[in-house]
Write a structure and sequence with these properties.
The protein is an alpha/beta fold. It folds into 3 domains: about 200 residues, Rossmann fold; about 120 residues, 3-Layer(aba) Sandwich (Rossmann fold); about 190 residues, Dihydrodipicolinate Reductase, domain 2, CATH 3.30.360. It is built from 15 helices and 25 strands. A 9-stranded mixed sheet has the order 2-1-3-4-11-10-9-6-7, with helices on both faces. It has an 8-stranded mixed sheet with strand order 19-20-21-18-22-23-24-25. The chain has a 6-stranded parallel sheet with strand order 14-13-12-15-16-17, with helices on both faces. α10 packs antiparallel against α15 and α13 packs across α15. It is globular.
Amino acid sequence: MRKVLYLYGGPFHPSEEAAKILSEMLARDGRFELEATGELNALATLNTRDYAAVVIYTTGFRDDLVPAREQGLLGFIRDGGGFVGIHSANDSFRGNSAYIEMIGGEFATHPAVHEFKTTIVDHEHYITARMPDFTLNDEMYHLTNYDPSKVHLLAETPWQGDKKPMAFVKKYGKGRVAYLANGHSLEVWRNPEFQKLVVRAIAWSAGADLPKNEIRAGLLGYGPAFNMGKGHAGWINNTPGMRSVAMCDSAPARVEAAKTELPGLKAYCSSADELLAMPDVDLVVVILPHNLHAPLAIKALEAGKHVILEKPFCLSVDEANRMIDASKRAGKMLSVFHNRRWDGDYLTIQDIIARGLIGEIFHLEAGIGDYSHPGFWWRSDKAISGGVMFDWGAHFLDWTLGLIKSPITQVMGDFQKRVWHAVTNDDHGQVYVRFANGATADFMVSSIAASLRPKWRILGTKGSIVADWSDNLQLVSYASGIRQESTVKVTLPGYGSVQYYRNIADHLLMGEELIVTPESARRVIGLIEAAQTSSQLNRSVPPFEGCE
């Protein structure tokens, strides 16, 4: 693992606190190890240490880049080292013209902190590939001694008829220099898009380049339910660096449908073996009934393919373990399409919680359902579907585990069959969870609920969130010391297919962190299976090993 030196210090910015966030980011990424210091003399010995890059997030020290430090830093970069300057890095060492020339610009001023959009202008560069435009409440730096002809601009923002650079790169001797203008507060440092820019800037400055290969995907299953085969193909084809090249379905009518809907594929297969034998397929997306997920995923992994499974992951912890083991043996990626981690209301709830507006969650309730027949199809057949909890329950329980970040200590389940006896799924299912931090969660899915709880009711030590299925969240907050009630409008887009496949491409092509890991998906399955076991035993049970 390559080392990165991070230099912090000076007033106005949380540069030392940001070191912890950056250290966690790089640990998750897995390519770099951070060494953080506030000692300026570390710059003098850069060339004597085995660093891949140096990151500077300091403010001030105008005349403190004395000759030994200047020679150490600039010599390190000229000789091929990487440099990343963040936000106030160009409001540092301003008495040293050689440093300002190296970084590419000098701080001039900034307006008051406000919300503004960072617009990506080059989607073909390593740092900004597949990056969307994003909006932050940040300090907008305006630069002087900035010559756009001497840098490669990656991102900008409009300001009073002008455009201000927000990210750029340049060469310096044999080295690479990247500057990111965002980064005033820890709130910005916690933003996933800013984090991605920082990690990528480090990797690029250390020598990484955008790969020219692409991920070629095959669809295993093209059933008519929700037209998910066509959906996945479209999401894949709209992701730079990925392409759908083949499909497979045992039903001739579905193969013919794919020929019409997805013209130009290399193969339209009628057997899984035919698809898995294709050397042109790197990734297999399993879009099959739930009981087929594990056996087909293991078969695909053993054939040397990366695998994505439609949710749920599988039907049991044993199946999850066998898939994870097969993935590790093959050295191939395994993930599940938990795209709804990017649903607008869920992200908004996460943001409200991160801002401290409801304090720490101590109880969460969620529910979905109504009073209606579940229909005569495989999703209502317990042997195939796994049961009533494996559809929307997989999403809600995944959300719950994302909101309450604590180990599970106990699970209570309640599954009842009372009305719809012509199908085998239970009519009503409930999962009650206790966590190590004392928080509890209660999720219910039902087809015999004549009245139902809200989609979300989240209670915290300083407030609450209540939401139905609209674009409005009802927030009560005592964070300011008085009761405040408000309606929070959900403006973020939902569903998350774009974000999910963007992460898959980033992971497979650039070695970045996989967000939906098989281990996180296993926790959801373990929670459902523990709840089913609890219901059968009529008592609470501990979580399965690996699902805590």
